[in-house]
Amino acid sequence: MLMRGGTSKGAYFLAEDLPAEPALRDALLLRVMGSPDERQIDGLGGAHPLASKVAVVSPSSDPAADVDYLFLQVAVGKPEVSVRQNCGNILAGVGPFAVERGLVPAGEERTSVRIRMVNTGDLATATFPTPGGRVDYTGGTEISGVPGTAAAVVIEFPAGAGRLLPTGRPRDMIDGIPVTCVDNGMPTVLMTADCVQVTGYETPKDLEEDLKLADRLREIRLKAGHLMGLGDVSDTTVPKLTLLAPPRHGGAVTTRTFIPVRCHTSIGVLGAASVAAGLRVEGGVGAELARLPAEGDPIRLEHPAGFLDIDSSLTTDPDGLPVARRTAVVRTARKIFDGTVFPGPPRRPRSPHIPLEAPDDPAAR
């Protein structure tokens, strides 16, 4: 099933319909999505990381969950499939997909699906309308980065069991730049945009074309990975990096997020959950510029496509360190296509003497 989840798009599969062996599964998914190819012209992928995603769903053996959700990020231009992170946008479609495939019975008005995110073991509950026992994707909820409206999918995360501040400190220094390392579902590094000589209001395209900035962010991310206990992150997409700037449109803060060097056209759900929690950390780098609402009111994060509202509140553990108390977000999802996908043939190395398109081929024009 091809679905839009939040501001992402991906292919949703039942685990039983894919090879159980990870290497065989990943090789198949590369063919399904059309990778490696910057255009993904021969597959389902949308030529961008936000549209080259896969959800693998199965019944859960965890008594705290109804279904297991494995997220796979399929690289666009490289033959790589990563399991090193979650995706909160694709998560928005997991509950409806589970009902569509008969893994969870639908309620008469609304259905809540308890989901275990296999990549990290974290839990979430998605609640959405199912009038008459069928998923209804229509509704009046609008989210930035998606045209039109759809039914609301409310995603709530339980209080975090892990460390909100992986380094144990609200602020660290990396290459002379103050950062806050936070993990409220997605390892994220917060820093102010002016510390890397940008405003934080640039378009994603402009930021991606700044090669000096890309090199600087790469160095910071590698060092942050070790600080956060993630080890060598050179081949992973976490931690995310989020640049912060004062808000311009009535929100709490302006954000620009990198995944890991491409700038997100909006912001990921789990990344936003970490940013929102990080803004409430006393002494964090966002405390000086964010215009935070009262405790209990949602935090509005401005991003390139608009805004995202996050309910985020903190408490403290017995050692006095901040921990997440409540995190919730409203997303939407939509079923785009349900049917059979025909994987492309296995790739063979192309001869350097054979052009991609013969110049005298009329079809190539």
Automatic annotation (TrEMBL):
GO terms for molecular function: isomerase activity. Keywords: Isomerase. Residues 339-365 are annotated as: Disordered. It comes from the Bacteria. It is an enzyme of class 5 (isomerase). The keyword Hydrolase does not apply. It holds the Pfam family PrpF. The keyword Nucleus does not apply. Its EC number is 5.3.2.8. NCBIfam families: OMA_tautomer. Belongs to the PrpF family. This is 4-oxalomesaconate tautomerase. It comes from Streptomyces cyaneochromogenes.
